[in-house]
Amino acid sequence: MKPPYGHRVRICTHAAFKEFVEAQGVEFFNIGGDPEALMAYMVKNPGLLPNRDSLKGGEVGKRRKEMAEIISGTWRSCIEAGDGMGEPIKAANVESTDDLFLADVIIANPPSMGHIHCAQKLSIPLHMVFTMPWSPTKSFPHPLASMSYGDADAKVANYLSFMMMELLTWQGLGDLINKFRTQTLHLDPVSPLWGFQLISRLRIPFSYLWSETLIPKPSDWDSHLNITGFSFLPLASSYTPPPDLVSFLDNGSTPIYIGFGSIVVDNPQALTTMIFEAIKIAGVRAILSKGWGGVGTGDVPDSVYLIGNCPHDWLFQRVAAVVHHGGAGTTAAGIAAGRPTVIVPFFGDQPFWGQMMARAGAGPVAVPYKDLTAEILAESITFALQPGVMAVAKDMALQIGEEDGSGGAAMDIQDRLDIDSLRCDLSPGRLASWLHRKTGAHLSGFAVGCLRDHGLIEMSDLKLLRYKHWYVDEGAESPIIGAIAAVSGFAAAIGTATSDYTQRLRNSPHSKSTRRHSSIGLQRVPKTEDGTNDAYLRSQKGPRDVTQADMEALAQKMASKTLYGAEPAFSAARLCRPVSEARQGRKNSWKARESGRNGRVFYVTRVTGKYACDLAAATARAPVALFYNVANGFHNAPSNVFDVDVRRRDEITGLGSGVKTAGKEFCYGIWDAFSGIVMKPYEDTKNMGAKGLGRGLLRGGLGIIGNLGSGKLC
Hints:
InterPro entries: EryCIII-like_C, Glycosyltransferase_28, GlycoTrans_28_N, UDP_glucos_trans. Keywords: Transferase. Residues 5-140 form the Glycosyltransferase family 28 N-terminal domain. GO terms for molecular function: sterol 3-beta-glucosyltransferase activity. The chain is an alpha/beta fold. It has five domains: 10-232, Rossmann fold (3-Layer(aba) Sandwich); 236-407, Rossmann fold (3-Layer(aba) Sandwich), CATH 3.40.50.2000; 430-469, no CATH class; 474-516 and 587-642, no CATH class; 647-713. 51% of the residues lie in helices and 7% in strands. It has 26 helices and 14 strands. It has helices spanning 18-23, 35-44, 52-56, 59-79, 115-122, 154-184, 192-195, 198-201, 243-250, 268-282, 312-315, 328-336, 350-360, 374-384, 387-400, 405-416, 419-422, 445-453, 479-506, 512-523, 534-539, 548-559, 572-594, 599-642, 655-688, 692-713, and strands at 10-13, 27-30, 106-108, 126-130, 206-208, 225-227, 256-258, 286-289, 304-307, 322-324, 341-343, 434-436, 442-443, 462-464. Helix 1 (18-23) links the parallel strand 1 (10-13) and strand 2. Helix 10 crosses helix 14 and helix 19 (479-506) packs antiparallel against helix 24.
C-alpha cells in the first residue's frame, strides 16, 4: 500500500522497464512489446504512413502483431497474478491470496488502446494521465499532426486534427481492437466510424502532466480535463557521480548536454561525427549521452565526455544548456533545471514540444533530425546560450518549482473517485463486490460470507456490483454512416475470420515450426525415475489445485442457483471436476487424432468447420447490425444536424433488453415525430422570435423523417 492514499499500485509496461519499476517499490506487470524496436520503426517512419521499405520488409505486420500483444496485455494486467513475464498464473494456483490481482480502477495513457474496453468489461472507473495533449481543442493542433493550414481556419483545423488522428489510429488498429473486444473480452464490436470518438464522447477525465507556464489550459477544455504540472522522479540525492565526470565538470567552462535518449538511428556513427563537428564549431564543451542509439563511438575529443545513465535532475543543474530529441520527460527536466533547450525532433510529439519551447522563448526553432547539419546544430546551440534565452528559461524554472505534478495528478484521480461507493457498508475498510438487491447495500465478500453463515441473506438477494457503467456504443451520427458501418463491419468480420483461419492452417500441429516448438517444450518437462511426467503428478495432488475451468464452472452453477442448500463439505473441485474433465477429455481426444495417421486431415476439417461457423455467424449478424446501426443513425441525426440533445437510447445487452428498447424507441419515435411538428416551431419562436418560426418548421419536418425512421427500424 502506498501513502498517502493507501492504494495497491501495479505499473503495467514493457519488460525492459521491469527493474526500474520494481526499484521504486511498485508492482510490475509485463504487457509485452519491444520499445527499442518500436523506436527504431518510428525513426524510420516519422509520419503517419509507413515508407516503402517498411512495407516491403514486413515491418507494418510486425508492429501490428506487437500492438495486438500489448492490447491483450492490458487485459491480462488487470486480472492476472504475477508479473506477466512467464506463463499466465491461474488464480487457483497462487501461493497466497495476497498475490491475486483484480483492478478496481484503471489509470492509463491513450496509446495503450485497451483502456476503455477493459474498464467497460470490469465496470470500473477509468482515468487518463498523459504528457501531451490528447483532447480536442482549437488552441493548437494534435502533437502528432503535421499540418499545413493553407487558407483554412486555423482554429477549426486544430480541432479537427485531434479527430483525424484518432480516426486514423482506429482505421489502422480497429480490427485488432474489435478482435480483442469480441474474442478476449466477449463484448460487442465498435465501428471505427464512431469508435474513435469514445474518449471524448464519454468525457473520460484526464490529468495532463505539463506546466501551464509552458502550455496554458485551453479555454475550450471542460472541467474533466485538468493540467497538474510536470512530474519528476527525484534521483539526484541517491546518485554518486564517477570521479572522471566530476573532474570534467570542474576543469573548464560549463558544458552543454547532448543526448537523444531512447532514439535508435540507422547510422549512429554519422550522427556522432555531426555532433562532434557542431561542438567544435560552437566552441563549447559537451557531455554526450550514449543512449540506446550507440552514439559516441570512435575517437572522442577532449572537449566531450561520454556518459551512460545519469539522473537528469542531477546533471542538468551542472550544464549550460540541453540538446535532446524533444521527449516530454527530457523537455520537462530541462525546463525545471532552468536550462535553455535545443530540440532536434525525430517523430511523434517531439516537433510539438519544439514549437512550444520556441514559442515560450526558452530555445531556438526546432530543426528536424532529417534536416540537421553540423552548422545548423552549432547555430542552435549558440542561440540557446544567449543571455536573454537563458533568463527566460530561469524564470520558467522558478514557476515550475512551485508545482507538484505527480501529487496534483494523484489528488485529481482521488477526488474524481467516489470512494464511498467502493466501500463495504458493513466493513468500510474492505472493497465492496456485491450489491444487495432489496436495500442497495454495498457488501464485500467477507460481509457476504458472514451474512450467509448466519442465514441472513441468500445469493439470490445479491448481484455483482458495477462501479462504473460505460455506454460505449451510442451509434452512428446519421443513417448513411450507420449503413456504411454495418457493411464495413461485415467485411471486417469476414476478413478477421479468414485471417484466423489461415493462421490456424499455418500453425497446424504437422507444420515444421509447430513440431519444433513441441519438441523443445517436451524436452523441458521433467520426469521422475519411473518415467512419469512430474507435471502430471503435481496436477493430481488434490482438490486444492482447482483449474480456471473449474472455477468458471463453479461460477456458472452459482449464477444458476444450483448451489443453494449444498453441504459445506461439497467442494468446488468435486462439483466442477466432471465439467472440466469432459472438456479436457475432448481436447485430449482432438490432439490424439491430430497426431495420428490422418491427423492432418482431421485438423484441417476441424478448423475449416470453425471457419464456416464464423462465416455463418457473421452473415447472421449482418442484417441485425444493419437495422440497428441505421436506426441509431436516425435517432442521433437531429443532434448532429441541429446540435439538439436527443433522448439517450437504452443499452441492449440481450434479447429481453432488446425487445424492451425496441418498444420504447417505437413509441417515442412516433410521439416525437408528430409532437415535433407543433413543439419545435413553438420552442424556436419563443426563443428567437418570428425568425425562429422557419427554423422550427424545418426542424419539425426533418424530425418526422428521423424519428419515424428510428421508431420503425427498431
